[in-house]
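QA checklist item 7 of 12: single-chain prediction sanity check.
[x] sequence parsed
[x] length recorded as 225
[x] structure emitted
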Amino acid sequence: MTLGELVHAYREERGMSMQEFADRSNLSKAYISMLERNRNPQSGRPPVPSLETIRSVSHVIGADFNDVIAALDAEEPVSLSYLQSRRPFSDNLLPLEPMERIPLLGQIACGTPILAEQNVEDYVDLPRHIRADFTLTCRGDSMIGAGIQDGDMVYIRQQPEVENGEIAAVMVDEEEATLKRFYFDGLTVQLVAENPKFPPMVFTGEEISRRVHVVGRAVAYTHSL
């Protein structure tokens, strides 16, 4: 049995959604899906779960960690790379947090689910506590006022609505997702850049539902020095 088969069987028995299992395990929904399909879209090979991932799954299903290990197929590989070191750290260093691999999306294909395989360019590592479903690469300087620069990776939690003033990934006219602050007063949607060079994008009436689609909320970003 693979870890994905174990997760799928547990969910099916209890009528649990993939999102609910992801929330309980602090793993992303995209990664749970990859485990259950037993295929990494990037490599075409089965995913390699870490011991920390197996521990998280064990906690959710209420099974002993060693029992889960024993139940897995003998040939299923397991990654040891995310185990924290037992050596002492100096006061100004912290051990690396457990990480999750989430999809890096490129050009989003019109009419396809956001996490469809054809949208995935690569997979990147993200500290598990951030809880994002995918990441996008920021292009241009429209969000520099929020500290987000050209080439930064912005991590998105997939959700259909955001609060006013939150930074959101938004599809406009089914084109590539744009990153802007989102405002809605009941009649008008404004997508506001964090750079005065860029005027707000304003939508009213029927064009809101026809042209504007919130993909998710930005929860973190990384900037390379």
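[x] summary fact logged: Residues 3-14 form the longest helix (12 residues).
[ ] second reviewer sign-off
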